[in-house]
Amino acid sequence: MTKGIVFDIKRFAVHDGPGIRTTIFLKGCPLSCWWCHNPESRDEAPQHTVRHRSLNGTLFEQQEVTGYETNVEAMVSQAESDRIFYEESGGGVTLSGGEPLYQPEFCTELLHLLKEKGIHSALDTTGYAPEEVFQRVMPFTDLFLYDLKLMDDAEHQKFTGVSNRIILNNLKRLFRSGKKVIIRLPVIPGITDNPSNIQSIVEFLGSMQKFNSPFHPFTDSPQVVHLLPYHDIAKNKYRRFNLEDKMAETNLGQQQDLSTLKAIFEASGFLVQVGG
After folding, report:
1. pLDDT, tens digit, for every residue of 122-140?
2. Which terminus, N or C, of the chain has the lesser number of Cβ atoms within 10 Å?
3. CATH ID of 3-274, from 3.40.190.10, 3.20.20.70, 3.40.50.300, 3.40.50.1980
4. pLDDT for 164-191, tens place per residue?
5. Where along the chain do its domains lie?
């Protein structure tokens, strides 16, 4: 039984792919995005922290462990308990993180078993994984929720800690393969929302149309883009896990009107949704 480290399971999720879903969050991520809303996922190992709670003016300390070891069969068993909701809504299971492919054996085996059980699977990924890992999971994954952040490689390295070359190459492979992909763009004020980056993304995705085949899911419909607004709900996590919050001074009032970005993508023929 292949084992992995999971830090959360969200049942009845409706923003992680089609229908009602069970989202399994795997620990570990090779990126360190400034705006990460799950910073507790960066370290693959379980982490011990102290949560402070106040009750009637008295402060209490509560010991917590984020992340636990489990196995593929246990995760599939949990998913099967919600099968009726998947069947009624067209839902399924989404693997998220962190970066699920940071635990390649666990992720691949879990997707394989979900496929055998007839449960729709989605992989919420940064795309930052070796080519051979991507090739292994592709046959078992029904939908890729693919993050696309910054097209300029130097900017990508500055704000995420890694190059975007692997990410873009893996995305090209997905389009060539005919797999179903939803592009997810985190709209980060002053970072990903600048006109140059948006135009570069529009042009890159437009160039992918040449890979369409008669069996490509986007042949008869537009490519799908989700614009994900920035939020600061993770700020307490940065304090709890003793991590630097590089977005601490961000003014949420500066966030660009997403309807403007939505119109830009729609004008280029994309099907656009605000939010996941």
Report:
1. 999 999 999 999 999 999 9
2. N
3. 3.20.20.70
4. 999 999 999 999 998 999 999 999 999 9
5. 3-274
